[in-house]
Amino acid sequence: MLIRYKKAFEKIAMGLLSFMPNEKDLKKLQQTIKQYETEDNWQLFLWKEEDIIGLVGVVIDNEDIEIQHISVNPSHRHEGIGKSMIRSLKEIHSDKSLKPNEYTASFFEKCENELE
Questions:
Q1: pTM to 2 decimals?
Q2: Contact in structure between 76 and 53 (CB atoms under 8 Å)
Q3: Topology of domain 2-115, per CATH?
Q4: Minimal CB count within 10 Å: which of 16, 54, 73, 78?
Q5: What is the 3-state secondary structure (H, E, C) of 32-47?
Q6: Which residues of the chain are modeled with pLDDT < 70?
Q7: C-alpha–C-alpha distance, residues 24 and 55, integer Å
């Protein structure tokens, strides 16, 4: 289930974000989390089953939602969680088109092919 990020989940979110290739540095991670906390059009969602095991971060404008970050706990990869997060985002924002950024493009394209 996709849930909105709350400050209480900061450590978990930072841990999941650290799996992104461009988020290895602690200062960069802290800046990214701050951006999701302070900018209205930056939204962070967490995937919760029994525990929080995935994360997807987006920037929303008038027509589009750009996926900035998508990450799944390594011990839960290849279970379709990333695809489920993208599917849920499409349902929540059915009036907008979903598109990847340079870091999420290859994963997004793989999901698109499997979701069609």
A1: 0.92
A2: yes
A3: Aminopeptidase (3.40.630)
A4: 78
A5: HHHHHHHCCCEEEEEE
A6: 113-116
A7: 16
